[in-house]
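Hi there,

I know you've been waiting on this one. I reran it after we fixed the sequence typo, so this is the corrected version. Both the input and the resulting structure follow.
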Amino acid sequence: MDTALTAVSVLFIAVSWAPLLPSSHWLVRVWEFPRLQIAAIISLLIAGHIFESTYYAQIDSLAVIIVAGLTVSLIYQVIWIIPYTPLYKREVRHVEVESASQKLSVLSSNVYMPNDDFRKLIEHVRNKQPDFLVTLESNEKWQKGISEIESEYPYRKFCPLENLYGMHLYSKLPFEEVSLRFLIEEDVPSMKVKINHHGQDVTLYFLHPKPPSPTENTYAKPRDVELNVVGEEIAETEGPIVVAGDLNDVAWSPTTRKFKKISGLLDPREGRGFFNTFHAKYPLVKWPLDHVFHSEHFALVNIEKLESIGSDHYPLYTELALITDKD
């Protein structure tokens, strides 16, 4: 048996199951992100073992064990990611809405603070005309760079920061309530907004917790706790709810699934696609870090990943429609 093929196979069996370890260290939790890539590599490894056995016309007992381990690992990865493919049942139904006033739309964009290409984001805003624009990683430079849209967005809440966690919210709809919050970490803001939309109070949350990584938080606990806190708050909140932002977590992770379960919110991507918003510059490094979740009061009009604005994230645009008893 080829030693290199065996070593790589054992490695990918190990990383497939690594997130089950009782640790929130980034070296453990990072393997929740590239499940699609891991599944693809495991498929190639299985093919490699089959080719080797066929070529040498012999079946090695160790190879059988390794292929069995790879096959189980592949099935395990597919179970996590299949809800975000067209093979899965859609969690949110689609509706056609002709009147723009019936929609509630959000454009969420992690702009990447060092990026200076303000014009591309402005073009997306002018083209889509979202009710809400939330920019993440935005600082004073970005606030000035896209200031020309302020005349179209009279309701605003800004938190410019130079630490990659600034947040700017632009709204066409008046705020009934708006609050800037630092739920877990003193340098990581989030926003909570309440509006009145067609006679109903709608609550919106905009989030951007830090990821587990060697350059950010060594452990995933602050992110996990923030999502848990917001999920529990949502569970006690009545009426239509929308959550949007860069959660620095993939849609299929145990943390995000727990957030969905606690909050009772729905994911419009289920049964539709991955909508991989990160990384915008590396073709093989793709996973969904930017999210929109909503309560059962909404149906989906449209969701799409927009063209690059020079950031490491693609913007995510979502149109929802409030459902009435007549719909």
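Quick highlight: The chain has eight helices and eleven strands.

Best,
R. S.
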